[in-house]
Amino acid sequence: MCGIVAYTGDQPAKGILIEGLKRLEYRGYDSSGIFILDSPPYLARSVGKVAELERRVWNSAPDGVAGIAHTRWATHGKPSEANAHPHTDCGSKLFLVHNGIIENYQLLKKHLVETGHQFKSETDTEVLAHLVEACYQGNLQVAVQKALLQVQGTFGIAVMHLDHPHTIVVARRGSPIILGIGEKASLAASDVSALAQHTDQVVYLEDNEVACLEPGKFSIITLDNRSVSRGTTSLDWDIESMDRGSFPHYMLKEIFEQPEAVENALRGRVNHSEAVAKLGGLESVQERLLQARHLIIVSCGTSFYAGLFGRYIFETLTDMTVETELASEFRYRKLNLRQGTVVLAISQSGETADTLAALREAKRKGALVLGLVNVVGSTIARETHAGVYSHAGIEIGVASTKSFTSQLTILTLMALLIGRSRDLSYEEGHEIIRALEKVPDQIREILKQANHVRELAEKYCHADHFLFIGRKYQYPIALEGALKLKEIAYIHAEGYAAGEMKHGPIALIDPKFPTLALALEDGSYERVVSNIQEIRAREGQILAVTTERNTKLGNLVDDLIYIPETHEAVAPLLTVVPLQLLAYYCGVLLGRDVDKPRNLAKSVTVE
Ligand code: M6R
Q1: Superfamily (CATH) of domain 241-443
Q2: Which residue, 384, 426, 463, 464, is most buried by CB atoms nearer than 10 A?
């Protein structure tokens, strides 16, 4: 969603801020803006790509050494220059950027208008600029603090004032702000990717905290005026992984990084002699976890489909009852969070607002809340009682790809950990571990078929609709394959449990409505073949994913993609890869912006 970057130091701010905005582009945006404190002060805003703003900045911006910048994803008011951030107060002395939503902005605005403030945009954010102006009596941090006490909703903000040329005040509630502290400069951003090039010393601001940044130093107070003493932490971040290398898109690069992502998810986490998983992040809660009887998994989008896989793997390897719930629906359920309930929040970004709200609700009700998160230090990682990092590395393409295969790997390890403390035998545990350890090389084999998948994309990319079907472990993969095709190629696609075909969707089938069938030679193979025959009888085109030694499907389907033999429970880590490639190539062939699909954001920080 929206992105913030702020800098105060001894270098011209413009290059640092623009570079930061480009690093944040992957989060989704429709307009952007920049303020540089100089004489005279410089403000530029534009609709569309950051490159548009960049052109203007290089032509006209001064070399001032402090400034703030923003990429906006419209919530209140259409994408336009007037609605883009930074926003200013009446006297144009104060400049402010904001992520989040001010829920009581209409009430605040009415009061401000009555006291003479004049508004120039339709945004909720502009209210904050006027509110800080109204509270300002010479101390910017105190003014921000006083203003935010009146605000309902979520915010991550950065504020500058002409009277304090080297100072930036930032604050957060529900929307991330991270400080980056260097020797002669301080930065702040809504995402570490905008800081990592400049410093590896960061401070994660907590909700309801206000920080004052000056070059090389910072101080924090809470909204209720307690001073906070917090040191910096070192960022474990591989800068090189933020570049595309020789790949045309981040999405393709990240699909190809999956062998390493699975290796990293497994590294140091398997105890072969006991056929069990070792998950350091869960050690502090291991006793409660091993006694738990009931697991609720909460997540959104692709992470939700990982959670659906989690239901099958936990039910297979452990004796737990498992529910997988969309985080956005969690609050509407009357859940019986009995003693021994564990709630697991899965999230790549660790910032998804719905998932965060669900875990807070679960904590309130006394559940043990765990996280499975990719971004280290993210809000979900910090707010859960314990958890496991997926270590997939930074994922920049809006589509989740390598983070999904990492999530599946770790869910399997978590289920193994619990299962081995109960009924799961050493031999069964070993079989899973052996299968998992083969996955990286097996994915490498599948990736060698990328050209074949591209040819299939050429054949199928003009379809208006697509159906994906699978059973048991392959059902979540059918859903994920359909989501990928929707979001990347903008092709209407439905994922279905194959058994549901005759309860409705088969009515859609005709020669122009292709189906991708996940037809592995596992316990449900014969039934999936029956579904394929039913589709064929209605002249539907079929593209099937099956296992290498299966020679029987050739005359039943139009096209085939083969994956190596593996354990039924581990197969989703393989079958998802050709589906990601299919979506990617369809997107490219149709001229879509595959790394930044329309209307989408990498990190969905509003509910
Ligand atoms: O960061 P999260 O895993 O919590 O994000 C959840 C969804 O927003 C995300 O998976 C989304 O569906 C992706 N665009 C899928 O590719």
Answers
A1: Glucose-6-phosphate isomerase like protein; domain 1 (3.40.50.10490)
A2: 384
